[in-house]
Design brief:
By secondary structure, the protein is α/β, with parallel strands linked by helices. The chain has 6 helices and 11 strands. Bound molecules: 5-O-phosphono-beta-D-ribofuranosylamine.
């Protein structure tokens, strides 16, 4: 039996990069059968770039100078040099064009800090607290042209505790993100998760609903 070669993974970040670090560490420890080929930031000074370098990962910065198509052309050129088999958005704060998404459809992932389809967009933790929700979480999904609307693969469910601040809740959700993002990409790397007929398939069957993991 021949073992699969590790998946070549590119990770796009905008800032802190803690999800990127969780993915990189999972690769290094062998729990995720992938290799981080490159970490790309869309702004200079993104802290995650220093973290990636310290982990011995190749990095690049492609600054958005106001013209989206020029930015995406430059980003695509850097990606092409690394020929990634999967691209993970990890705290990447830009909306990619439908054309860009189409080029990576089925191997482009994002992690979003809410139980999608609820609370798409920004500022999810504050909105969840304002609505008095008892449960919050994060979602790993395939990226499609519509923002935060691609098929969800794996979700963490995290309790909202009495007296939670947005920061406390964000920290609890983030800890769960660091578990579920490597897990979902591990399924993809192992060939268990695939994009087929316009949707997510897991273990040879269409994924009718996301897999849900409970966190304390
Ligand atoms: C995470 O909460 C992620 O879900 C969201 O942005 C945050 C990024 O954090 N998209 P980090 O840069 O991975 O630390």
């Amino acid at each position: 039996m021949s073992a699969r070669a590790p998946l070549r993974l590119a990770i796009l970040i905008s800032g802190r990069g803690s999800n990127m670090e969780a993915l990189a560490r999972a690769c290094a420890s062998g729990t995720l059968a992938a290799r981080v080929a490159v970490v790309i930031a869309d702004r200079s000074g993104a802290a995650g770039i220093d973290t990636a370098r310290a982990l011995g990962i190749e990095t690049a910065t492609v600054v958005h100078a106001g013209d989206r198509s020029a930015f995406e052309r430059a980003l695509a050129a850097v990606l092409a040099r690394h020929a990634p088999q999967a691209v993970a958005l990890a705290g990447f704060m830009r909306v990619l064009s439908a054309q860009f998404v189409a080029a990576y459809l089925g191997r482009l992932f994002n992690i979003h800090p809410s139980l999608l389809p609820r609370y798409r967009g920004l500022d999810t933790h504050r909105r969840v607290l304002a609505a008095g929700e008892p449960v919050h979480g994060a979602s790993v999904h395939f990226v499609t042209a519509e923002l935060d609307a691609g098929p969800v693969v794996l979700q963490s469910r995290v309790p909202v505790r009495p007296g939670d601040s947005a920061a406390a809740l964000a920290a609890r959700v983030l800890a769960s993100e660091h578990v579920i993002y490597p897990r979902a990409l591990g399924w993809f790397a192992a060939g268990r998760l695939a994009w087929q007929d316009g949707g997510a398939w897991l273990d040879g069957r269409p994924l009718a609903a996301p897999v849900v993991e409970e966190f304390p």
